[in-house]
Specification:
By secondary structure, this protein is of the alpha/beta class. It folds into 2 domains: 159 residues, DHBP synthase; 94 residues, Rossmann fold. It is built from 11 helices and 15 strands. β12, α9 and β13 form a beta-alpha-beta unit. It is globular. The structure holds threonylcarbamoyladenylate and magnesium ion.
Length: 332
């Protein structure tokens, strides 16, 4: 049985949220809201509970999890070396959409790190996530709360659709504001490397710690174990178009066609389904995963999605779109 509770992020009912913390304390699984996407959480230090996360999601065991903490000082429980860059980035961007990879300390279950010598840590900004971690009295290991392979959930309804019957509790805390997963930056080597782009951009980090490498779609072996799996895929075929107005050229007869575009009303497209993603890439990012799921519900066969800008959150948005599209990107 999966219990669903509703928590207002602006006025948290601590008694009700304590029920979720009790589930975590007893080794259960709770889907909870964060500012990026919903997470599926368990006590980081309970290896059996963490193993159940993989079972519930159908996630490959070689894909490590992020541990979510409620206070910067808890980083010391995870890392055997804490470089200055970690402190600087944490002070600047936590709580927020940034995950830091560090050399791990002994005592963290192998299930969390997939047996790697490094560990991923993040302090979210979402009030419900932070209160849940505090009430649970332990860091919470959590991947995104979707079934493996489907788009990350940005509403409780997405978690309910994917995980009912598979987890103990789902907390409905409204929409995730950012809408795509956190930036993952690896600080365990000589030079910081962005393994997954997100809400905190390489430029943001360079202004605080200097050199940061981000090589876009890295060829060859993926450094972030999760990056090798197909991700963010709806049932419909996704095609990214730089010139979204040209979608008619690529349209096929008999296929239900969906267009996702910024300022879509201005474009006046003749697609079967049109989703407007507002004026800029921030709004686009906030709605992307929601709309990819909606396209399936609305029976779309093909989704034409507008190419985002090549800076700011547009970089992360492009990364997710590229993956949903399996690399089908048409430039002008
Ligand atoms: O915004 C987010 O990061 C959300 C919320 C719930 O916090 N979480 C999330 O988790 O997206 P997940 O598991 O879907 O993605 C975590 C990524 C995976 O690609 C994983 O391979 C990578 O982080 N990762 C975790 N530990 C790592 C490590 N030690 N070294 C390299 N990559 C790691
Ligand atoms: Mg995920």
């Amino acid at each position: 049985m999966t219990k669903i509770i509703k928590i207002d992020p602006l006025n948290i009912d601590m008694d009700l949220l304590s029920q979720a913390a009790d589930v975590i304390k007893h080794g259960g699984l709770v889907a909870f809201p964060t500012e990026t996407v919903y997470g599926l959480g368990a006590d980081t230090f309970n290896a059996e509970a963490v193993a159940n996360i993989f079972r519930a999601k159908g996630r490959p065991m070689d894909n490590p999890l992020i541990s979510h903490i409620a206070d910067i000082s808890e980083i010391e429980r995870f890392a055997r070396e804490i470089p200055d860059s970690a402190i600087k980035l944490a002070n600047e961007f936590w709580g927020g959409p940034l995950t830091i990879i560090l050399k791990k300390k002994n005592g963290i279950p192998d299930a969390v790190t997939a047996g790697l010598d490094t560990v991923a840590v993040r302090l979210p900004s979402h009030s419900v996530a932070n209160a849940l971690i505090k009430l649970s009295g332990t860091p919470i290991a959590a991947p995104s709360a979707n079934l493996s392979g489907s788009p990350s959930p940005t509403t409780a309804q997405h978690c309910i659709a994917d995980l009912t019957g598979r987890v103990d509790m789902i907390i409905d805390g409204g929409n995730s504001m950012i809408g795509i997963e956190s930036t993952v930056v690896d600080l365990s080597g000589e030079v910081p490397v962005v393994l997954r782009p997100g809400g905190i951009t390489p430029e943001d980090m360079r202004s605080v710690i200097g050199e940061v490498i981000y090589s876009g779609e890295i060829e060859g072996a993926p450094r972030c174990p999760g990056m090798k799996y197909t991700h963010y895929s709806p049932e419909a075929q996704v095609i990214v178009l730089e010139d979204i107005a040209s979608f008619e050229k690529y349209r096929e007869n008999g296929k239900k066609t969906c267009v996702i575009a910024k300022n879509a009303p201005k474009l006046n497209p003749s697609a079967d389904i049109v989703y407007d993603v507002g004026a800029d890439d921030r709004e686009y990012a906030a709605r992307l995963f929601y709309l990819l799921r909606k396209a399936d519900e609305d029976g779309a066969d093909v989704v034409f999605a507008e190419l985002p800008e090549n800076h700011g959150i547009g970089i992360a948005l492009y990364n997710r779109l590229y993956k949903s599209a399996g690399g089908r990107v048409i430039l002008k």
